[in-house]
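#struct-pred

JT: dropping the chains for the assembly here, can someone run the whole complex?
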Amino acid sequence: METLYFLIEVLIKNVVVIAVLMFFAAYLTLIERKVLARIQIRYGPNRAGPFGILQPIADGIKSFFKEEIIPENADKPLYVIAPMIVITAAISMAAVIPFGDKLVLFGREIKLVIADVDVGLLYLFAMASLGEYGVVLGGWSSGNKYGVLGSLRAAAQMISYEVSLGLAIIGVLILSGSMNLREIVNAQKEMWFIVYQPFAFILYMICAFAELNRAPFDMPEAESELACGFNIEYSSMKFALFFFAEYTHMLAVAALATTLFLGGWHGPYLPGTLWFLIKVFLIVFVFIWVRATYPRLRYDQIMKLGWKVLFPLTILNLIVTAFFVTVR
Amino acid sequence: METTFMAINMGPQHPATHGVLRLLLELDGETIVKATPHIGYLHRGVEKLAETKTYHQALVFTDRLDYTNGLSNNLAYCLAVEKLADVEVPRRAQYIRVVLCELQRIAAHLLWLGTHALDIGAMTVLFYAFREREKVLDIIEYITGARLTPSFIRIGGVARDIDSNFVKKVKEFVKEFPSRVDEYETLLTENIIWKKRTVGVGAISKEEAISYGVTGPVLRACGVYYDVRKAHPYSSYEDFDFVVPLGKNGDVYDRYLVRMQELRQSNRIISQAIEGIPEGPYKSNDPRVVLPEKDDVQTDIASLIRQFKIATGGFRPEKAEVYASVEAPKGELGFYIVSDGSEKPFRFRIRPPSFLNLSALPRMIEGQLVADVIATIGSIDIVLGEIDR
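RK: done, full complex below.
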C-alpha cells in the first residue's frame, strides 16, 4: 500500500512540475520579449490578448502548423532525434531541484522535489552536458555548413565552460558537505552561501551564460554570423523544441543558482515556493538584461576567457575556500 | 597531408551582409584563407539608363544609389550638372543643401551604427539609433515630402523654400542630439566586449587604403586627412567651422570612433548653417536650366514657354566633361558626366564610395575569423545600391 501511495505521489509531482515548467518556459519567451522591448524603448508583443499574454500560445499553435522540412542531405535519424535529446535533457534537469521544503498532505509528508537524490548535483551536470549532444548532433546532421560551424563552436564551448562551472560550485559543496540539493538548501538556513562565496557566484553566473549559449556567449547561434547556427535548417515543432529547451534550460540554471547560492526556498513571510520562484526570476531577469546590453564576444576570445581566466580563478577560489574551511 | 579548405557562401541572403553582397569565403577552421566578394545582385543599369534621359529626369536615379543617403546623392549630381551648365547657385540654396545633407549624414550614420552594433551582438543600440533617425527622417519628410528618395535638391537650387517650422524643428533636434550621442557612447565606446571585438580587427594601413582608393571614414580612420568638404569645398562648406576627425590604426574601432565624432561634427555644421541661413532666392534664375515658379507659369506666357521647353526637351549644355564630388557619409561620391552637346548625357559615370571601399575588404579580413568578417563589413558601411548601380 505504501508503494502505491508513493507511486501516486511521484506521478502527481511529475505532472505538476512538468506542467508548471512548461508553462513558465513558454511564458519566459514572452517575458524575455517584453523585458527586452522595454529596455529598447519598444512595446513588445501586445496584440494577442491583453498585454500579449496569449502570444506564447499563438506561437505554439503556429509552430504546430508549419511545414516540417528535412533537408535532402541531412542525416535523418539524428536530425529527428537531436531536438528530442535537447528537450529531454532540459526537462530532466528539473527533477532534482527542490522548489520548496515539505508539505503535509493527507497525513503524508511530501518533499517538494521529484527525486531526492544524494548526488543530485552530479545528475544535474550530467543532464546539462547531455543536452549539448543534441545541439552538436542537430547542427552536424542537418548537412549545412553554418550548422556544422555552430556545432563545432557548441562542442568547444561546452567543454571549456563545464569545467569552470563545475569547479565554481565545489566551494559550495565544501561548505555544505553534501551533493544532495535539499541538504545544500538546508545548510543555508542561517546564511545564504552567496555571502561566503560571492566570487564563486559571479564565476557561476559567467559560466552559466556560456552554458546557456546566451549573449554575450551565444556563439553556437550567433544569428548575424552563422545565420542561426546549429538550428538553421530546423523548422516547425523541431525548431520550437530547440527554442523551448533553451528556455527550460535557462530556468533550470537559474533554479540551480538559487539552490546553491541564494538559499533556495528560504525567506521570511512568504511561502517557500514563492520565494524560490522570485529568486529564479530575478536571475532570469539578469540573463535578459545582459542580453540587451552587451555585444557578443568572439569565439576564440570565449575560449581564452574560459581557459585562461575563469579556470584559474575557479581553482583559486576552490583553494581559498578549502583553506578556510580546514582552518576553521 | 593535403589541406582542403571549406568554402562557404556568405550571402546573398545572409543577415549581416547588408543587402545582397555575396562573399565566397575559404575557411581553415574558422580562419579566413581567402575572401572573394561577388556583386551585381542589385544591378539596375543606372549609368546606362541615365544616358537615355534628360539631365532633369536623371536626377531621380541618384536617390536610389545609396538609398540611405538620397540628398547627398542629389547634391553630387546637381553639382556636376551645374558645373557643366555653368549655373550659379544662390547662397540660401547652398545653406539649405548643407543643412539637409548633414541631416542625411546623421541619418545614414545612425543606420550604420545600429546595424553595425547589431552585427556584433549589441541589439539595443539599434533601437536607440533608430529613435533619432526617425526624427531626422521626419524633418526631411516635412520639407521634402519623402523619407527615402527625396529628389529635393534640384539643378540650380532646391525644390522649394524652407519655412520657419522647419527651422524650429531642426533647431530642436540639434539641441537634443549631442546628449543622444553620449547615450550611444555609454553603451559602446568603453564597453570591454565591444573593444575586444573591434580593436585591431579588419585593420588596413594608410598606404594600402590610399592605393585601394578607399575614402570617407574608413580612410580617415587610418589617419589620412582627406575630406572633400575641406579639400575641395563645395556648397559653402568653407563657411563652417568643423573638425575632420581622424583615427590612427585604421581598424574597426577607429572607424567607429571617427563616425561617432562625425555625428557630433555634422550636428555642429547644421547648427551653424541653420543659424546663418542668408535671405535670398532658393534657386537660381537661369532661364536655360531652372524651371520657373509655378505661379508664373500660370500667369505669364514667357514662363509657360520656359516650363514647357525645359520639361519636355531638357537643356543642351556645351560639349564638355565634368567631375564633381561630395563627401557622402560613406566617402567621396563623384559624378563624371560627358556631354556631347545634346540634351542627354553622352556618358554618365558614378564613383560610388562603397564600391571602392568594398574592394579593400578581402585585404582587411585575410587571416581573421568569421566573426571579424561581420564586424569588418559593418564597419566599412557598404550599401549595395551604389555598388551595383
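JT: nice. Strands of chain A lie at 102-105, 108-111. Residues 223 and 229 of chain A are 7 Å apart (CA to CA).
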